[in-house]
């Protein structure tokens, strides 16, 4: 069966912009791609950590900015190899997470999460897409989460933000495929990062950030649209999507315990 996206088997010299690169999956992916010869632009809010990483990796430049500042996107994109037509592949990995139950919702936590996880990604796509369309090529990689598949405990805002990203990525794929732009959706399960360290409940099938980065690289090499992992957990949640809601509530409700 033909892959949904062009396969990415070789990273040597490839211009990659990773947004959300200072910690967790983004940092691990930067390390993995640097080892494969990619040229990296690394962005996040944490200036010092970002600059240390860029210096360590070589062939990498740090461009710190806040993804919730829509004007800052344009300024950052202006530094992304403008003389060569911009980045060939952009990874939208910046995100935030607070384990929240329904009774813990506040307007501040709602807006803080949606501004980073959803609006920041949409602003970024709107910024880089015109250049890709003009070039007739490019690849957008959107990092969502299996928490967006269906409602889950402790994800009163995080889950909906990632569900919206799933819909956004699917829509982008259909719109941009005829125009030569590839779109990939990354759906991680539990990954050991500073954000998931906030969880006080058991996290099934927890994997390291490096394992997550390797899964992403392997999925891109296969030309997959959705790169979901670890399979032993993500497939279980995919099954929950098609089960009757009564069964979903009974099984998913146990995940937050």
From TrEMBL:
Keywords: Oxidoreductase. It comes from the Bacteria. Pfam families: adh_short (PF00106). Belongs to the short-chain dehydrogenases/reductases (SDR) family. This is SDR family NAD(P)-dependent oxidoreductase.
């Amino acid at each position: 069966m033909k892959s949904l996206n062009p396969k990415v088997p070789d990273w040597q010299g490839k211009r990659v912009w990773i947004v959300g690169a200072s910690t967790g999956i983004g940092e691990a992916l930067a390390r993995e791609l640097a080892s494969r010869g990619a040229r990296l632009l690394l962005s996040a809010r944490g200036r010092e950590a970002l600059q240390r990483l860029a210096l360590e990796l070589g062939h990498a430049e740090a461009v710190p900015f806040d993804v919730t500042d829509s004007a800052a996107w344009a300024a950052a994109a202006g530094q992304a190899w403008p003389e060569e037509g911009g980045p060939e592949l952009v990874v939208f990995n910046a995100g935030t997470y607070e384990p929240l139950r329904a009774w813990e919702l506040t307007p501040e936590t709602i807006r803080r999460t949606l501004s980073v996880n959803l609006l920041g990604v949409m602003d970024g796509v709107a910024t880089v897409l015109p250049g890709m369309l003009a070039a007739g090529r490019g690849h957008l990689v959107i990092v969502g989460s299996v928490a967006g598949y269906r409602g889950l405990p402790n994800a009163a805002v995080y889950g909906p933000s990632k569900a919206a990203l799933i819909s956004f990525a699917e829509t982008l794929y259909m719109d941009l495929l005829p125009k030569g732009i590839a779109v990939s959706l990354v759906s991680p399960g539990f990954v050991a990062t500073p954000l998931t360290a906030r969880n006080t409940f058991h996290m099934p099938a927890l994997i390291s950030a490096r394992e997550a980065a390797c899964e992403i690289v392997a999925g891109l090499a296969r030309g997959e649209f959705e790169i979901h992992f670890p399979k032993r957990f993500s497939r279980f949640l995919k099954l929950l999507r098609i089960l009757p809601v009564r069964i979903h509530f009974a099984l998913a409700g146990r995940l937050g315990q």
